[in-house]
User: Fold Class I SAM-dependent methyltransferase from Streptomyces akebiae.
Amino acid sequence: MREQDDPEYCYSLLARDAVDQVEAYGGGPVDGLTVVDVGGGSGYFTEEFRRRGAQAYLFEPDLGELGTKPPDGAVVADGYLLPLADGVADVTFTSNVLEHVADPPTFISELVRVTRPGGLIYVSFTNWLSPWGGHEWAPWHYLGAERARARYRRRTGKDAKHTLGENLFAVHIGRTLRQVRDRDDVTIVSARSRYWPFLAETVVKAPGLREFATWNLLLILRRCPP
Ligand SMILES: C[S@@+](CC[C@H](N)C(=O)[O-])C[C@H]1O[C@@H](n2cnc3c(N)ncnc32)[C@H](O)[C@@H]1O
Assistant:
């Protein structure tokens, strides 16, 4: 709720929580690991990985999102085509990016490619039918994206950042789970709500309900050996 007023507080907290999750599912501290943060915005997550001793690298295609003080060594790059060799990362991390790409399976393939066999892939996204699915025009997206966007403009006097089909896409939990289960290069370590403190995996097991109640899907994947 404080994202707009106090992004520093909000994103630092989120970054600590996300790295705790990586450590919990990865089986230990990230100290010494190579971490690739794809679509990492201004770098809160990369900075938190570094604070804990990881060699973390930020890849972000949008200069505006990188801001004026990106982490040292940040690379302007698209997640569909990362300038990295196969299997270099112990952990590949992407937070709230999948709903901003037109082709999630291809994006995930690239995350898998750069992760070493046995390495962890952290993918989280706000699905379309989540109460936050419409981002700055939520929850009015339930009445249609165009109407919600127009309402945002009327209320704030400015254009919304996101346009459905341009930089925001209707990504669904059921379809994404099927796409990931169909892959033979990853196993699913966990499919859970990113933010729910309880019943986080249970809610994702309920078709239909999960599209509304999960809020944000977190997939923890492990790359299979070749
Ligand atoms: C909502 S922001 C999330 C930023 C940060 N990861 C976080 O969780 O706060 C979405 C990010 O996805 C990035 N993005 C969009 N398309 C991308 C792509 N094809 N490859 C990599 N990043 C992309 C945007 O530039 C933006 O920084």
The CA atoms of residues 151 and 157 lie 10 Å apart. The chain has one domain: 7-128+169-223.
